[in-house]
Amino acid sequence: MPCSDIIVIVMAAGQSSRFGSDKRIAQLNSGKTLLNATLLAIQKHFSNISIVIKPEDNLESFELSVESSTIVSSRSHLGLGYSISDAFRQLCNDENTHHYRAAAIWLADLPWVSQETCCKLTEKATPECIVKPLHQGKPGHPVVFGRNFWQELAHLENVNGANTVIKKHSNRVIHVSLDDPGVCTDVDYPDDLTESLKKHKRYINATYHPNKNYIKSQKKY
C-alpha cells in the first residue's frame, strides 16, 4: 500500500531559465509531460502529494493526471529556498498535517526515481531525522525531512534550498547509498530529456532480467 504518513512536496515553482521554456509541460517520449511523469512516479509509493506552484500559474493548463493539493509560493521568484519556506509555512499551519512523520522534498523534474528507492528512504524516515539519498557518493533527491525540522524549513531565506538546515543538523542526517541514478537525474536543459531517459533505460536493463529467477534456479543443479 502507498505510504500515507509522509507527505511529498513537489517543487514546481522554478523559473526554468536554463531550459528556455516551461519544462513542466515538456513532452517525454511516453507522451506525458515532465511534471505528470514525476507525479505518476510519486503516486506509486505515496498517497499524499502537494505541488508548489507560482502565483501566475494556471493549474488547469498542466492537465494533471494525479490527485494532489497545491501550495502557491508568493516568493518563488526569489529562489528555491523561499519556495520551500512558503510550502512549510503552510504545512506547519495546517491542522490536517499533524499525523505526518515527515515530508519529502521532491523536484518536479525528477521522474525516474525507482520504487525500491522510495521504500528504502521511507523505511529510514522518522520525525527526528533527515534522510538523504546518494548515488555513487553524489547527493540526490528526494530528501525526507522529519517533522521536527519543519519550523526551520518554514523560516528559510536563501536561494539554495534546504542545505543550511541539512548542514546545521548534520548529526541527524541519514545517508542512504543507492544503486539508482534516478535520484540524481533531473532536467536542466532540453537535451537532458533525451540523455536522462537513456541513462534510465540503461539502469533498468542492467537491473532487470525477465528470466532472472529461472536462471538462478538452473544454477542450483
Task: Report on this structure.
The chain is of the alpha/beta class. 32% of the residues lie in helices and 17% in strands. It has helices at 34-43, 80-93, 115-124, 150-154, 163-168, 190-207, 212-218, and strands at 6-11, 49-53, 69-72, 102-107, 130-135, 138-139, 143-146, 173-177. Strands 1, 2, 3, 4, 5, 6, 7 and 8 form an eight-stranded mixed sheet that branches. Strand 5 (130-135) and strand 6 form a beta hairpin. The longest helix has 18 residues, at 190-207. Residues 209-221 have low confidence and may be disordered.
How many helices? The count is 7
User: Strand-residue fraction?
Assistant: 15-25%
Cα(first) to Cα(last) distance is: 37 Å
Helical content, roughly?
25-40%
Q: What's the Cα radius of gyration?
A: 18 Å
Instruction: Characterize the main sheet.
Output: 8 strands, mixed
Order of helices and strands: EHEEHEHEEEHHEHH
What structural class results from the helix and strand content? alpha/beta
Arithmetic mean pLDDT: 88
**What's the β-strand tally?**
8
The geometry reads as globular
| Parts with pLDDT < 50 across at least 5 consecutive residues | 209-221
